[in-house]
Amino acid sequence: MGREENEIAVGLDIGTTKIVAMVGRYNEYGKMEVLGVGKSKSLGVHRGVVNNITQTIQSIQQAVQEAESVSGVKISEVTVGIAGQHIRSLQHSDYITRPNADAVIDEEDIDTLCNQVHKLVMLPGEEILHVLPQEYKVDGQAEIKEPVGMYGGRLEANFHVVVGQVTSIRNIGRCVKSSGLELSDVTLEPLASANAVLSQEEKEAGVALIDIGGGTTDLAIFKDGIIRHTAVIPFGGNVITEDIKEGCSIIEKQAELLKIKFGSAWPGENKDNEIVSIPGLRGREPKEITLKNLSKIIHARVVEIIEQVFLEIKNYGHESPKKKLIAGIVLTGGGSQLKHLKQLVEYITGMDTRIGYPNEHLAGNSDPETTSPMYATAVGLVMDSLVHISKQKKAAIKEAIVEEEIKEETASIAGEGIEEEKPVIDNRPRKNILEKWTEKFKEFLDNAE
Fold this sequence. Notes:
The strands form five sheets. Strands 3-2-1-6-11 form a five-stranded mixed β-sheet. A five-stranded mixed β-sheet has the order 14-13-12-17-18, sandwiched between helices. It has helices at 53-71, 107-118, 166-178, 189-197, 200-205, 237-248, 252-262, 291-316, 341-349, 376-416, 433-448, and strands at 9-14, 18-26, 32-41, 45-46, 49-50, 77-82, 88-97, 126-138, 141-144, 154-165, 182-188, 207-212, 217-223, 226-233, 275-278, 287-290, 329-332, 353-355. It has 449 residues and is an alpha+beta fold. Helix 6 packs antiparallel against helix 8 and helix 8 (291-316) crosses helix 9 (341-349). It has eleven helices and 18 strands.
């Protein structure tokens, strides 16, 4: 391939139903190639939040070992996704007055502005996860997407701030560390899924990504290529299974199989005489369940989930002409494979809908299993990790060049015998907010041990 081995990245999706470890790298065409996937049943995670550390560690280790044996790569660092009912997002505007209006705006000014937002006072026990700039204003001139290189005294921006609970984030970090892995990055799961599933055109036109997982349903709304709204709704495929279990008086395993094999979100599709027979428990009579009843149970719960998501889309304000979501809705995640779900979503929301497969950035010869909507988050996490690695690489090269220049400068000064010391200009690239945050978080974990 002509690429170094260290450009391999690992995404770890700690879900409510399954834990997936995915190993990937870029091929020579700039597409992502999946080298190996390991998955295990997720025990100890409830609605996206870890509630049993020991079981979660075991599940992570199982998934990682499987991914290692399939890919032949030793896994040491992972990028983890974070979701759960504790995630909330808010809009915030902030500004800085630049000391020197005659110099052009650079990355450092943007960092200063983002850092200022990081100092916002949150509710007790909450921490800022992502600060995502939307548009900038320079000296009152609005709708600027990229202010770097412009002149101006006052730099202002609207931010989308994602907030999560400190303890939940800490617990995930704890599980990863105790599994013998390093935490290289933490990403919000709806953002990871969106990276894997959406095309740039859709993000520009306006689109809502709904990722229906086992324990949570994640929503990410894009417009003009920028993320506008994120939300995590604490319901997913598991509550549907739970309802089937209660409604039909059967065990969970059977309910899950019924949902996958015969379930439909549209009751009108089933005839009254379609019946499934389920073996009874130990010597009991088999149970007979009509598919119409089954889909009525599923329908009721799915409508509830979609309505909650639709409420979030309304909160974003999709009805105003400027915020219109032209590309409609994209459904992904394991729950999106439910029969007739696309039609039901279109019926409730009145928006165009498609099922999103994470093959947008995957190599053409990928295993059909990895392009299943179930793996959208894992694919997105690997992509995030690869971007993170290449950024770090560029930063390291830049740093080396700067150091070399400084050395040469000092050498020439020493050669000329000039006593006066020149101030050294530090051109090293500033780390982005999340990298800083991950570092702080690592330090915190190390101190906690």
